Amino acid sequence: MHLGGAHRGARGGAALWRYRRLRAACLLAGPYGTFNPPDGLQQATNYYAALDIPTPKGTLGDWWDANLFSTNGDGPVGPNFVTAEYLNHNDLGFGRGMHCLKNGTKLACYVTNYGLPDQNPQNADDALNHNNPGATVAMEYDPGAVGEEVQFYVYGGGAVRASARLKFADLDGFGPKPVPALCQTCHGGGPGLDGNNKASGAHFREFDLPSYRYPGAKSWDYGQAISATTPSAADFDAFAKLNHFVRDTNSGNEIASTINGWYPGGVFSGRPVVPPTPVSWSGHANEYRQVYGQTCRTCHIARDYPDFVGAGGLTTFQDVSTVDKVCGSGSPKVRVMPNSSITYRNFWVDTPRVHLYETLVSRAIDSCKS
Questions:
Q1: Can the peptide bond before residue 176 be classed as cis, meaning omega within 30 degrees of 0?
Q2: If 0-12 CB within 10 Å is exposed, 13-18 middle and 19+ buried, where does residue 329 land?
Q3: Could you say which of 58, 122, 144, 222 has the lowest number of CB atoms within 10 Å?
Q4: 0.85 cut: is pTM over it?
């Protein structure tokens, strides 16, 4: 997913302004706001109470201890621990410091946000140098917890042992939203808790390297050789290991197939390659990569419905009810997708991508922007 060449023009800026004014409350809350429930405080309280059985994890240090990290959040040297720093340029806009530790078939990862959700290249450098830390999101995968394999925790700023657990977090400047619903919007499952007051149907997410930026204002796209302007060979190997870990927590879904496409033959090292185009998008490989891959896959890859890549996937993507969520409907026009403010902006300021989308869904050029 390559995001270069986008510039914020007048129309793109106006589209973003309308979205913020009319439907800002739905950002990171699903198109209908269902991932920001009115009883969010009670849900978050019930959720953490369920997760604290049998081991309470009220601080980040508690979580580290329970998941066999060291006292300062590091892990053992070897194949089961990996770290990486990057800027999440197409989703939240933070710098991110990722740490993952595999214990047998279980996986535990925590990621600390750095800087503001503003796509500032400095955020990646801050992640590398541990400057300006914000909230830390932690995730656990346990294959023995059938249906509830993946759970979430959020801790306050500082990324230290004493960092306290949070029931709400504001990841985009549009207000706090409750855990785990805030996480479920792009990790799948929900909205809401299951009968055990836990998250169900959620996933660890893939690491999409072309969509990131890296310390030192570096970037990378498919087919690009390693150079002074890209991550290093060691960096690519670290992300390959992260994707291997994530793939092993997913089976038979789009996340697993995308990762397998990036690393053919199961060779998890080096640079990923362009993943195959789904059969349902045959003849539209460019649209799949430039529109769906850069915009919609950011969250929809973790959701079972609507299915944009399986049999009939492109037809579903072109359905008027789907298109209206992107292009807007009503008067004044209301748009509710993409559901992340950063992804939304990246899409609408990239005029060639918008035109490619409008052509794909049989809308007149610039009619969605107007």
A1: no
A2: middle
A3: 144
A4: yes
Per DSSP, 78 falls in state S
The count of other CB atoms within 10 Å of the CB of residue 24 is 14
Place of tokens 């990862």: 109
Spatial CB neighbours of 221, under 8 Å, sequence gap ≥ 6: 2, 4, 210
Distance between CA 354 and CA 349 in Å, rounded? 8
CB atoms within 10 A of CB 287: 20
pLDDT digits (tens, 9 = 90+) for 119-154: 999 999 999 999 999 999 999 999 999 999 999 999
What is the DSSP annotation of 16-58? HHHHHHHHGGGTTS-TTSTTS-TTHHHHHHHHHHHHTSSS---
d(CA 204, CA 188): 9
What span, in angstroms and rounded, lies between the C-alpha atoms of 336 and 19?
7
Q: Are 162 and 134 in contact (CB under 8 A)?
A: no
CA distance 221 to 287: 17
For residues 193 and 40, give the distance between their C-alpha atoms in angstroms, rounded to a whole number.
11
Residue found under tokens 């006292």: 71
Quick check: 238 and 207 in contact, CB under 8 A? no
Residue 211: what pLDDT?
97
The conformation of residue 154, written as its DSSP 8-state character, comes to: E
